């Protein structure tokens, strides 16, 4: 028998109270953690999808659309640009690497990107099986695509025209799988990479021959040699050419600002829930201290000193927080797994579930701080307790 | 052994002043203090227990002037040397009978012995209730538990505040007899305050406030 074991008896004495306190606190902790983690995951996902792309050059239009389509591969392209002009830009001394990409086709909803072998460098990707593309009509698959359709080296498939999944127009020439990338957890995982010529061949072999038709690409992904590039190149391109330049990082910042309002609102709701749950804990502890005033006074007559009683009540509060915190983490992880599972299905993308210890620690510290405050307020009557008065008013 | 001298108490500066008679009890002596409500019976008892501090005068238990002790020492002294019996609330609600007695010994900083607890519960005829929560006990059982709580740590002084006022005649006599027996068995002084005239014949010494 010691202070701790009495705390545990008290903890179990009114199970409904205890259960409700734990429930409300754990839900608020779970919400806070889930929101933080989701925001961090999406941000990290988006940022890692940028790879080493500093600037994207495409047809005039919305810069955000250009970034969404050419970098994140989730929107339609703004249009096409001349390959010749793009190549001219590639020779600019501020440009370290320029990778052209060209769209046109999909395989069951997964985009086929015509590009050069430098494309994989942007994502620091390596080929796990097979080899890189060497000639038209060969493709290397992103890890998610290979897994989804169970495609292997040497398999062939027919692409469909356009970027979205529809069955109206299949191309007749089959594409051959020659390689599969290692999973990168970036956008590359759900792309099918091929040679620029594949796209051109597929789309123009029925029309005019290559040499009479000016070659076009969708956009050019650029890596700068120095930060100087950020200052001069985009403005130069936007004012002097028919193309537009967009900076992915800047556009994404804008995107966060749009979507951030929602995230912020939910975060504030979670904080409010946390505050409410702390108030609940305060009320339940305070009520406990008041309901058990006689018990506590009795313990003082048994020889218990004030620190022992404070410890007893504090242990009970901490027990509630501790359990609520563990339950909260579990709830948030289960909830997130469920949400990400859905997202993977919908967007064909693997979003890494990263358990951010720093954020867990921060949320934990916040919850602990607020609960300590609640405990402190609740047990203050113990310190000021007038034993004689409580004992002489027994009911 | 308890001795008081010149005890004066006042709750608030504007309140009336209580003047208490001096008492002195030798080994194994018991005292019944009678009085109507409002004359300061409970106040007197709380002064004796060190729960209130007198304006003037002192209380000596086993030669120690208890009001000169620091708060912490007072808590410890009270826990080890004094046993209190109340009218209705006798033990901690969240613990069962056995656990209450263990807690009583723990807070008094005394060794916890299951045999001593069982023996006492047996003497008081509540051994069958050992695993019951406090709220599951009858009035009579509760008062027996109250007695157990006041003597388990072998105190020098047992102070009882209206211990019988909620008991019927049968239980009243049985409980008082048990309390007196336990006080004698522990070589403790027993002081009972009450307005219950039923128990007067059980005491040699009595005092009316």
Automatic annotation (TrEMBL), chain A:
InterPro entries: ABC-4/HrtB_transporter, ABC3_permease_C, MacB_PCD. It is a multi-pass membrane protein. The chain crosses the membrane at residues 16-35, 268-289, 318-340, 360-383. Residues 269-387 form the ABC3 transporter permease C-terminal domain. It holds the Pfam family FtsX. GO terms for cellular component: plasma membrane. It is found in: Cell membrane. Keywords: Cell membrane, Membrane, Transmembrane, Transmembrane helix. Its main location: membrane. Residues 18-203 form the MacB-like periplasmic core domain. This is FtsX-like permease family protein. The lineage of its organism: Bacteria, Pseudomonadati, Bacteroidota, Flavobacteriia, Flavobacteriales.
UniProtKB/TrEMBL annotation, chain B:
SMART domains: AAA. This is ATP-binding cassette domain-containing protein. The lineage of its organism: Bacteria, Pseudomonadati, Bacteroidota, Flavobacteriia, Flavobacteriales. Gene3D superfamilies: P-loop containing nucleotide triphosphate hydrolases (3.40.50.300). The keyword ATP-binding applies. Pfam families: ABC_tran. Residues 2-209 form the ABC transporter domain. Signal peptide: none annotated. Keywords: ATP-binding, Nucleotide-binding. It comes from Flagellimonas olearia. GO terms for molecular function: ATP binding; ATP hydrolysis activity; transmembrane transporter activity. GO terms for cellular component: plasma membrane. The keyword Protease does not apply.
């Amino acid at each position: 028998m010691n202070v701790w074991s009495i705390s545990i008896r008290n903890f179990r004495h009114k199970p409904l109270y205890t259960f409700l306190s734990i429930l409300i606190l754990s839900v608020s902790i779970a919400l806070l953690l889930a929101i933080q983690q989701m925001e961090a995951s999406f941000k990290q996902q988006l940022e890692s999808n940028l790879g080493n792309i500093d600037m994207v050059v495409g047809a005039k239009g919305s810069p955000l659309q250009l970034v969404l389509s050419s970098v994140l591969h989730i929107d339609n392209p703004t249009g096409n640009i001349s390959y010749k002009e793009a190549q001219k830009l590639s020779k600019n001394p501020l440009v370290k690497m320029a990778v052209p990409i060209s769209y046109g086709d999909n395989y069951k909803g997964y985009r086929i990107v015509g590009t050069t072998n430098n494309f994989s460098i942007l994502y620091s990707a390596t080929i796990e099986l097979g080899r890189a593309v060497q000639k038209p009509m060969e493709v290397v698959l992103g890890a998610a695509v290979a897994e989804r359709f169970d495609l292997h080296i040497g398999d062939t498939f027919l692409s469909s025209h356009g970027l979205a999944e529809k069955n109206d127009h299949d191309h007749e020439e089959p594409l051959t799988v020659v390689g599969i990338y290692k999973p990168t957890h970036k956008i590359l995982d759900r792309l099918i990479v091929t040679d620029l010529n594949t796209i051109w061949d597929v789309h123009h072999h029925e029309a005019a021959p290559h040499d009479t038709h000016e070659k076009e690409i969708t956009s050019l992904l650029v890596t700068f040699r120095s930060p100087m590039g950020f200052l001069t190149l985009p403005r130069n391109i936007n004012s002097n050419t028919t193309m537009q330049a967009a900076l992915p990082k800047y556009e994404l910042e804008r995107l966060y600002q749009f979507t951030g309002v929602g995230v912020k609102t939910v975060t504030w709701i979670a904080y409010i829930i946390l505050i409410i749950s702390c108030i609940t804990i305060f009320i339940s502890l305070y009520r406990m201290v008041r309901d058990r005033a006689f018990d506590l006074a009795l313990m003082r007559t048994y020889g218990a000193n004030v620190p022992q009683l404070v410890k007893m009540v504090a242990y009970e509060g901490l027990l509630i927080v501790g359990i609520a915190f563990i339950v909260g983490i579990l709830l948030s992880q289960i909830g997130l797994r469920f949400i990400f599972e859905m997202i993977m299905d919908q967007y064909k993308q693997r979003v890494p579930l990263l358990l951010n210890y720093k954020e867990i620690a921060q949320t934990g510290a916040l919850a602990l701080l607020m609960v300590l405050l609640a405990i402190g307020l609740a047990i203050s009557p113990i310190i000021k307790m007038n034993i004689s008065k409580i004992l002489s008013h027994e009911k | 052994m308890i001795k008081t001298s010149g005890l004066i108490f006042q709750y608030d500066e504007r309140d009336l002043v209580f003047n208490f008679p001096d008492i002195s009890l030798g080994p194994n002596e018991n005292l019944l203090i009678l009085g109507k409500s409002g004359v300061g019976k409970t106040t007197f008892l709380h002064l004796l227990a060190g729960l209130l501090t007198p304006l003037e005068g002192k209380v000596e238990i086993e030669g120690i002037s208890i009001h000169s002790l620091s708060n912490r020492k007072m808590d410890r002294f009270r826990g080890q040397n004094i046993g209190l019996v109340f009218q209705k609330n006798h033990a901690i609600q969240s613990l069962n009978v056995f656990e209450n007695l263990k807690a009583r010994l723990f807070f008094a900083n005394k060794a916890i012995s299951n045999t001593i607890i069982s023996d006492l519960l047996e003497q008081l005829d509540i051994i069958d209730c050992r695993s019951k929560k406090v709220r599951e006990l009858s009035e009579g059982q509760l008062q027996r538990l109250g007695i157990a709580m006041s003597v388990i740590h072998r105190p020098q002084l047992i102070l009882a505040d209206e211990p019988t006022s909620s008991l019927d005649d049968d239980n009243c006599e049985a409980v008082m007899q048990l309390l007196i027996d336990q006080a004698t068995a522990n070589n403790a002084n027993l002081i009972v305050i009450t307005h219950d005239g039923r128990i007067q014949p059980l005491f040699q010494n009595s005092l009316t406030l």
